Amino acid sequence: MTNTLSRPTTDFTTLPTPRTEEEWLERARLVRGLLAADAAARDAAGATPYAEVALLKDAGLVTLLGPVEHGGGGQEWPTAYRVIREVAAGDGSIGQLLGYHLLWFWAARLVGTPEQIAQVEAEATRQRWFFGGAVNPRDADVVIRDEGDEIVYTGRKSFSTGSKVSDVTVLEGVVEDTDTHVFAIVPSDQPAITFHDDWDNVGQRLTESGSVTLDGVRVPWEAAAGFRDKVFTPRTYNTMNVPVIQLVFVAFYLGIARGALEEAAQYTRGSTRAWLHSGLERAVDEPYVIDTYGDLTAKLWAVEALADAVAAEALPIHRDPDALTERARGEHEVRVAAVKARATDVALEVTSRVFEVLGARATTSTLAFDRFWRNVRTHTLHDPVAYKRREVGRHVLVDELPTPTWYS
């Protein structure tokens, strides 16, 4: 089944191409509005979000990080995180899809050779590729056979966000009888890749995050990211995948929370009734309602400000990757861990507590206010937030820096 956006969309070809950060944020707000209009109905339908991904492409958001000379936005990560936040406020699933896409679009810069980076970004921008990824580290490693000029991926991954809506998929595996990990970008639509359509979770229902089987996916060695003559030269910058993806998570957690809070406030202004014993005529005059919105808004604003600050702190790293030291990377990851912990707590609180100020009639399935909490609750289990707090605590107490892993 395919999702169909149930209202007219915008003809983005009639709009000027955004150039500045504020113009891109305004474009993201426009996309947010289009998604929010029927987000509850599409969440209930749970259909493959082809139309939603087409919207992201038409709006230019999929090439936000792409080179301007090839038609991309030429933006940097602080803007990208804020764009993800806006889109997620309209639809948490689509915010996650965009965030993961931008991560994998950028991943060539993380591990690729200069020639690979230029080639991938040019082609991905010109063709408006939408990226998916099959890189779940909790599964057994995908096995790679070295067959001379080619490598061949075989195995299974439990999660493959983007799956059927992606044009290309990032694969990761280990060359058999070695500890050599290899990333590669491959076409998603090929006989050797089977997406199983088994994503059936309570939240983030439209992320196409089901399992995938790789049955002999062939890749030329020259396309193995970062390899020359079958040898990979490691850099400290290779370990920046975790700080970036964790800030992507923060972005759509905060976006979902903001969407919940703003949609709840709109409902409270128009539909929530004052309590019959309050002596008040309007819910917006109820002291406990005012206090709750003030409390939740203040907490959300604080974490948004921290997220923006941590994103800005990483700009020198991304602009000069070869200058990154292990200590600078570790200190940045501690800051990322801190904002990830706070974003998790605040997003869960906001999406749960809004019901206190909505009233019983707002629990109808048609309004689907529960989708905000379901979306946050589902993805915040990605990795235990206690381990993020541990990174911060160990650094404060004994100056310990996180050891780079798939999660730290």
Automatic annotation (TrEMBL):
GO terms for molecular function: 3-methylbutanoyl-CoA dehydrogenase activity; flavin adenine dinucleotide binding. GO terms for biological process: L-leucine catabolic process. Residues 247-382 form the Acyl-CoA dehydrogenase C-terminal domain. Keywords: Flavoprotein, Oxidoreductase. Pfam families: Acyl-CoA_dh_2, Acyl-CoA_dh_N. Residues 30-118 form the Acyl-CoA dehydrogenase/oxidase N-terminal domain. InterPro entries: Acyl-CoA_DH_C, Acyl-CoA_Oxase/DH_mid-dom_sf, AcylCo_DH-like_C, AcylCoA_DH/ox_N, AcylCoA_DH/ox_N_sf, AcylCoA_DH/oxidase_NM_dom_sf. SUPFAM superfamilies: Acyl-CoA dehydrogenase C-terminal domain-like, Acyl-CoA dehydrogenase NM domain-like. The keyword Plastid does not apply. This is Alkylation response protein AidB-like acyl-CoA dehydrogenase. The lineage of its organism: Bacteria, Bacillati, Actinomycetota, Actinomycetes, Pseudonocardiales.
